[in-house]
Design brief:
The chain is of the alpha/beta class. It is about 50% helix and about 15% strand. It is built from twelve helices and ten strands.
Length: about 350
C-alpha cells in the first residue's frame, strides 16, 4: 500500500511540477527574460559581480545548494557567514571553500533554526562581531520528516523552515537597515521556498491544527512550510516598502536537486526521480536562482516576487493572498511570544 501511495504522489508531483514550471524550458534550459534558465549555474548568473563590499549570512550553508551559494558569494568577494546547526560540517565546508579560493572570507556560526533560543544566540554572536549585513539567504530547512515537535513545541517543518527564519530575519533587520543607510547599497533577503507550496492544505496553513499529530501528513506539512516562506517574503516586502527601507525580499524555488534534504524520504524521492529524471538539476544549477536573486544587478529594486530558473514565476493562489500573509505574520509573532 505504501509503495502504491508513494507512486501516486510521485506522478502527481511530476504533473504539477511540469505544469507550473514549463516542460520545454526545464528540459532544454532555454533562457527566459533574464537571459538565464534552468541550465544556468550560480557562477554564470553572478559573473562580473563585485561583492567585495558585501556581508552575507547563509543559513544551512554547509551542504547542498547552501554550500554552493556560500562558495560563489565568497568567490565574488563577499564576506560569508555560514550559519549551521552542525558546526563541524560547516567548518569542513569553510575549509573546502578556502582551499579552492585562498582569498575567501568565510566564518562559521552555530544556528539551529528549530530552536528560537538558538536563533537569538546566533544573532547576539553575529552582532558582537560588529559586522554590517547586506544579504540574508534563508536557505536551511527540513523535508518530509516524521511528525516531531521542536523544543518550542511547534511542528518541525513549520518551526525550522518558517518560524526560525521569521525570527532570525526580524532580529537582523535593524542591522540591515543601518547597513543600507550607511553604505547606500540595497539590502536583499532571499527565502528558499519550493514548487511544493502548491501541495498544501485547502486553506493553506492549518493555524489551529499545526501540531495535530493525528492529522499530520509529511508532504502537506512540508508544502505548508514552503507556502509560509513565500507569504513571509510577501508580507515583509510590503512592510519594508511602506517604510521606505532600501531592502528587497523575494522567494525562490531552486529546482529538483538531490541533496541531504531528502534523507527522510529516500524511497519516495527515488521514485520521483525515475519519472522526472529530465527535470533534475545539479547543485551548481540549483544554487543559480539563489545567487541570481541575491547578487545580480538586474534585480535592483525588485521585491515581493517569486523566482524559479532565474526568472519570475507565478505562485499558487494561496501564495497571492494578502490576508493569509498578514494572518501568518500575526500567528508567527504570537508563537514566538508564547515560547518565551
Amino acid at each position: 500500500m505504501t509503495r502504491v501511495h508513494n507512486s501516486r504522489r510521485s506522478v502527481q508531483f511530476r504533473q504539477e511540477y511540469v505544469e507550473e514550471m514549463g516542460i520545454f524550458s526545464l528540459i532544454t534550459g532555454k533562457p527566459g527574460a533574464s537571459g538565464f534558465g534552468s541550465a544556468s549555474t550560480a557562477e554564470q548568473v553572478s559573473a562580473g559581480v563585485d561583492a567585495s563590499a558585501l556581508t552575507v549570512v547563509v543559513t544551512g550553508g554547509s551542504s547542498g545548494v547552501g554550500l554552493e551559494t556560500s562558495r560563489v558569494f565568497a568567490l565574488r568577494g563577499a564576506h560569508v557567514i555560514i550559519a549551521a546547526r552542525n558546526t563541524e560540517a560547516a567548518s569542513e565546508a569553510r575549509k573546502r571553500i578556502v582551499e579552492s579560493n585562498p582569498t575567501a572570507r568565510v566564518d562559521v556560526l552555530k544556528l539551529d533554526l528549530s530552536s528560537l533560543e538558538s536563533v537569538r544566540a546566533f544573532v547576539d554572536q553575529f552582532n558582537s562581531m560588529n559586522l554590517p549585513l547586506n544579504i540574508l539567504i534563508n536557505n536551511a530547512g527540513v523535508m518530509l520528516c516524521p511528525f516531531q515537535l521542536s523544543e518550542d513545541q511547534v511542528e518541525m517543518h513549520f518551526a525550522t523552515n518558517h518560524l526560525g527564519h521569521f525570527l532570525l530575519t526580524n532580529l537582523l533587520l535593524d542591522n540591515m537597515r543601518a547597513t543600507t543607510k550607511s553604505t547606500g547599497i540595497e539590502g536583499r533577503i532571499v527565502n528558499l521556498s519550493s514548487v511544493a507550496h502548491l501541495h498544501t492544505h485547502s486553506k493553506g496553513i492549518r493555524f489551529d491544527e499545526l501540531n495535530d499529530e493525528k492529522k499530520y501528513n509529511d508532504k502537506m506539512a512540508y508544502g505548508q512550510s514552503k507556502l509560509a516562506n513565500i507569504l513571509h517574503a510577501k508580507e515583509l516586502s510590503r512592510r519594508l516598502t511602506e517604510e521606505g527601507a532600501n531592502i528587497t525580499v523575494n522567494s525562490v524555488h531552486p529546482g529538483l536537486i538531490w541533496t541531504n534534504l531528502m534523507r527522510h524520504s529516500l524511497a519516495m524521492m527515488k521514485a520521483i526521480r525515475v519519472v522526472t529524471y529530465m527535470l533534475w538539476k545539479n547543485v551548481p544549477q540549483g544554487a543559480a536562482t539563489i545567487c541570481y536573486v541575491g547578487l545580480n544587478p538586474q534585480l535592483k529594486g525588485v521585491t515581493g516576487k517569486y523566482f524559479a530558473d532565474c526568472n519570475k514565476e507565478k505562485t499558487g493562489k494561496l501564495a497571492e493572498s494578502d490576508a493569509l500573509a498578514k494572518q501568518l505574520w500575526e500567528f508567527s509573532e504570537e508563537l514566538i511570544r508564547s515560547a518565551q
